[in-house]
Amino acid sequence: MKKTIIKIVIFVLVLGGIFGVKKIIDNRTQDYKPKVNEAITNYFVNNDSSGLDEILEILDKNKNNDDQREDIQSYANDLVGSWFTYVDQKYACDVSTFRTNKNSCLVLLDEFNKLNDKLVILYNFKSEEGYTIIKTSFYNNLITKSQRRITEINKYTKNSRNPQTSEEERLEKCSKSTECENCRDGVCKCYFTSNGVREELTCQKDEEFIESLKNK
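The structure corresponding to this sequence follows.
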């Protein structure tokens, strides 16, 4: 009976030890995330790099724990990459919108250039043990993609124009409109049809055009 009790006690102690160790490991694994998230967010939003030193300290504390250190760097990779994705999706500047969206493309270009500068600075932060906040392979891949996107945006801005104002749009329609009537003092009531929709406009027309209407 005593042997059975001893076995049960030993089993409980071993089981408790396993769960205790697992809890410690889980806590250590999760503990770094809020600090890393806060530091990187402050850096990209407020240009505050003071928190980055704390990430380097965490990496150095885990110099003998390769798995933990790589987890920290992978998490940092994801956060940094999310900033590039966020900025790229924030502004409309692609093959379907750039022709009439020059302002948006220019703002996106400026944002990407700033992100690139911040990325280079962040990568050059090194701990006393020589660790970087993000992995070298990730940095090289991200900087290459970012430079490619900047080249693309530059091409778009050269071939884009600002959206028309309502007045510019009206004048363009008037210039294309040939169906006019009731002209007085050079001002006519004209009609512009596009995609089956007929729109009435008040347009300024030259004398030659008005004379041509009288001969119809």
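Helices lie at 2-46, 52-61, 66-90, 102-123, 136-158, 166-176, 207-214.
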